[in-house]
Write a structure and sequence with these properties.
Blueprint: H1 34-37, E1 47-51, E2 54-58, E3 65-68, E4 79-80, H2 83-93, H3 112-123, E5 128-131, H4 138-148, E6 157-161, H5 167-178, E7 179-180, E8 184-185, H6 188-196, E9 201-205, H7 212-220, E10 225-230, E11 244-247, H8 253-264, H9 270-283, H10 287-304, H11 331-335, H12 338-343, H13 347-358, H14 369-373, H15 381-387, E12 391-394, E13 397-400, H16 404-410, H17 417-432, H18 439-444, H19 446-456, H20 464-481, H21 485-502, H22 505-521, H23 525-541, H24 545-562, H25 575-580, H26 606-612, H27 624-628, H28 631-654, E14 666-667, H29 771-776, H30 785-788, E15 802-803, H31 806-811
Parallel strand pairs: 1-8, 5-10, 5-11, 6-9, 9-10
Antiparallel strand pairs: 1-2, 2-3, 4-7, 12-13, 14-15
Helix pairs in contact: 3-4, 5-6, 5-7, 8-9, 8-10, 13-15, 13-17, 17-19, 17-20, 19-20, 19-21, 20-21, 21-22, 22-23, 22-24, 23-24
């Protein structure tokens, strides 16, 4: 029986290939090749990096997380590459050789004197800036100089590309070229200290900036000798840069003709030599124009005798004299030959040119061409373009040569740019997110990806912004893991703009979060604060708890480093830190219960007791980290202090010889009332028609008790001088007399309903001083932060200890 197609006797199938319900028979629900049909979902790749003193975890799902580098995770000190390692890195950084037969080795004509002068200046430690128009042969000159200076410096020769790079990017590139520090990106100060000790000959091609940026690069590397190649439109260096200026011009007439013959690999005819002379006058002797003109002559020979060339069209034997030669290109076609050269290439090569135009001149790697073009042999198109002089190296990749993009756009190769950019973005988004693709490979294609994003954002066609968001979402974590943070920032900003245009709030929040993390790692705290707050707000609206927690953690770190509160009055060490740092639980609302008194009991005055219990004392808030992270410690200390005060009160009460009803007994619940007129407060409002008296209730009425009920009035108490037989001194009972610590200080403009001091059961004599009068006779000491936060609750007023002041009055 076939395991994939079961027999009709199973599952109610009939004999004609259909099930009982009339649907066609299905194959087995468990295929023999589950690896193709049921693939397991790939997990997100997280990478941890050390950025300065921070530990960065690149998380493509919820957003990257950053925290201080824990002990034991600090990276080792960077070490220098050996000579063998430097040679291997230089070979790996060179552009790949295009497929097909190798082209002719072109000599460096009329540059020998300039080459020797450059080597002499570099040997003396001088830096040189070589300025020449595009296509003047600057790259060929730098290659020859680099070969001559291989043994001049202790760190050898370092080749860098300044194409779309800033001064900071080049500083980190120089560090990576000399030092070996895996998964470590030093901070700014550490970087400057490391590159200051580098002694190398730095060959920097395609420099795109000058002025202060160039001065910063030179000042940071005093032990390096630079040879910089740039175009005349780049800003000049500062007056204090001490750079030698050398200008590169075109070749002479004879040298141009010699170069043309080297490209064609034969001698020129008289007509071709005259045509080359006119071309030299028109192109001002630029070597690139004669390389492209040589490609035109080779195609002309191919048209004249196709059998004389091999499959690649490289061999060029002299054509028979009886075969008429095609006409020479016009002078205009020779000066701008890109369209004419493209017409004589294969269809795959022409489609590659269209994709390169759509990407702003960036040519995808040859491994991506079959998928983009739709031809399995499209990788050979790179060799065709390089043999025609339409490509120029740019770091480890190729891009269209100078002027080729404008010529192709004029020839109609710019049509359908948006569609091709979208196709390239979709391909790169799938490729960059594949688990088998390393971050190093993604970084090598960074320029092409960023060019695709630039074409799509902002886009006026439907769906372009969403594709840009998809590409930025896939590529930005790889850029971060590959430590190309310049490309990381560009991808994040274009992705954020695309998400805003497309209305994808979740993706926009992700890009804001990543920008905040990037700003935090680079030391831009204000920018990090703004980006993280925007991300937290968006994720809070979307109920994205995990993303919001990651944002609050990063924001708490920003607040700790900036040393100030968060905008809006939120304390970074309070609610934000409590929710951000591992979602730890807050302290109980009533604080931590106070312990038994551990301090020796010392006698204190009633004024101190009144000051301790005042609720209207202004609260002076401490630093942010004390208000939040150490509030439990403050509560415990406050409870201990209050228990010590209560213990001293009990001690004084027990030594006073008993409690007299008619004496002025001051309890722990009697505090200086905020309505006391003698302390600067307005008098208490009269109750039941009785006259207002500071600190006294109306006679004949009871004062409110702890639960809101009235206490017995003064008429029900024993007469003066008669002790109450039922009154006994109270003891320090932890179960009843121990106050609870409130969770935090409060301040109210009105009288608090919880403050109801209980009067003594006897009427005070007019001659005895009231607590408010006693407290007003001496300056009131300013309470500390701990004292202002300790207020007894109403539940303790019924059982709290009392203080007998009769002995003190008699002594007075």
């Amino acid at each position: 029986m076939d395991p994939n197609n079961r027999g009709p006797e199973e599952n109610g199938r009939d004999h004609d290939g259909f099930e009982e319900d009339g649907m066609p028979q299905r194959q087995s629900r468990e295929p023999l090749t589950p690896d193709f049909g049921l693939q397991k979902p790939q997990q997100a790749r997280t990478v941890q990096l050390i950025a300065g003193d921070l530990l960065l975890t690149v998380n493509p799902v919820d957003g990257s997380e950053v925290e201080p580098c824990p002990p034991g995770r600090q990276p080792e000190a960077p070490v220098r590459h050996t000579a063998t390692e430097r040679a291997d890195r230089e070979r790996a950084a060179a552009p790949s050789v295009p497929p097909g037969p190798p082209g002719p080795q072109l000599p460096l004509l009329e540059r020998q004197e300039l080459r020797e002068r450059l080597v002499r200046l570099l040997a003396r430690g001088r830096s040189v800036r070589v300025t020449g128009p595009a296509g003047s042969g600057r790259t060929a000159l730098l290659n020859a100089v680099a070969a001559d200076c291989a043994d001049l410096a202790p760190d050898g020769v370092v080749r860098l590309s300044g194409h779309k790079r800033t001064a900071t990017d080049l500083q980190y590139a120089l560090f990576e070229a000399v030092h070996r520090a895996p998964s470590h990106r030093p901070g700014r100060e550490e970087l400057l200290g490391l590159i200051r000790g580098i002694g190398a000959v730095v060959v920097l091609d395609d420099l795109e900036f000058g002025g202060t940026g160039l001065d910063e690069l030179l000042d940071a590397t005093p032990e390096c000798a630079f040879v910089l190649a740039t175009t005349p439109d780049v800003a000049a260096p500062g007056p204090d840069s001490h750079l030698e200026e050398l200008f590169l011009t075109g070749l002479g007439r004879s040298a141009s003709i010699d170069l043309l013959e080297k490209v064609v690999e034969r001698s020129l005819t008289e007509d071709e030599a005259n045509w080359a002379g006119d071309l030299w006058f028109e192109s001002e002797g630029l070597p690139l124009r004669f390389v492209q003109a040589g490609a035109l002559l080779r195609h002309r020979d191919l048209q004249r005798d196709p059998e004389a060339f091999d499959a690649y069209g490289s061999a060029a034997p002299p054509a028979p004299e009886d075969v008429p030669a095609p006409p020479l290109p016009s002078l205009g076609e020779g000066a701008a030959p890109a369209v004419l050269l493209a017409s004589r290439l294969s269809e795959a090569a022409r489609e590659t040119l269209r994709f390169a135009v759509a990407l702003g001149g960036e040519v995808p790697h040859q491994a991506h061409l079959p998928a983009l073009v739709g031809d399995t042999h499209a990788d050979a198109a790179l060799g065709e373009l390089a043999g025609c002089g339409l490509l120029s190296p740019a770091g480890p990749r190729y891009r269209l040569a100078a002027g080729v993009v404008a010529q192709l756009e004029a020839g109609g190769y710019g049509e359908g740019v948006a569609d091709r950019a979208r196709t390239a973005a979709q391909h790169y988004a799938w490729w960059a997110g594949h688990p088998s693709v390393t971050s190093e490979r993604v970084v090598a294609e960074a320029d092409a990806m960023l060019a695709a994003l630039a074409q799509l954002v902002p886009g006026d066609r439907a769906g372009q912004a969403s594709v840009a968001v998809l590409l930025a979402r896939s590529a930005s974590p790889a850029f971060a893991a590959g430590m190309q943070w310049g490309a990381w920032e560009k991808a994040l900003r274009m992705g954020q703009e695309g998400a805003r245009i497309a209305g994808e709030v979740a993706e926009e929040a992700y890009f804001h979060h990543e920008l905040g993390v990037l700003a935090l790692c680079t030391g831009h705290l204000e920018r990090a604060r703004a980006e993280l707050e925007a991300s937290i707000g968006m994720r809070g609206a979307l109920a994205d708890k995990s993303g919001a927690v990651a944002g609050r953690r990063a924001l708490a770190l920003v607040a700790d480093r900036s040393g100030g509160p968060l905008p809006g009055g939120r304390a970074p060490a309070g609610e934000e830190l409590a929710a951000a740092r591992y979602e730890e639980a807050a302290s109980p609302p009533a604080g931590i219960p106070a312990a038994l008194p551990l301090f020796p009991r010392q006698p204190v005055s009633a004024e101190t007791t009144a000051v301790v219990s005042r609720e209207d004392t202004p609260v002076r808030r401490g630093p942010a980290f004390l208000r939040g992270a150490r509030r439990n410690l403050v509560g415990a200390g406050a409870g201990a202090l209050l228990v010590a005060v209560l213990g001293t009160v009990v001690a004084l009460g027990t030594t006073s010889g008993g409690e007299e009803p008619d004496s002025r007994n001051v309890t722990t619940e009697q505090s200086a009332d905020e309505d006391d007129g003698e302390n600067g407060f307005p008098a208490e409002e009269p109750t039941d028609g009785a006259p207002a008296k500071s600190g006294k209730p109306a006679e004949g009425t009871g004062s409110p008790g702890p639960s809101g009920q009235a206490t017995p009035s003064a008429d029900a108490t024993p007469s003066a001088g008669e002790p109450d037989p039922g009154s006994t001194p109270t003891t320090d009972d932890p179960a009843s007399g121990e106050p609870s610590t409130p969770s935090g200080p409060t301040k109210s403009a009105t009288k608090s309903p919880t403050k109801s001091p209980t009067e003594s059961p006897s009427s005070p004599s007019p001659s005895s001083p009231t607590p408010s009068e006693t407290a007003s006779e001496s300056p009131t000491p300013t309470p500390t932060d701990t004292e202002t936060q300790t207020q007894p609750s109403n539940s303790d007023s019924a059982s709290g200890p009392t203080l007998d002041t009769t002995a003190e009055d008699g002594a007075a």
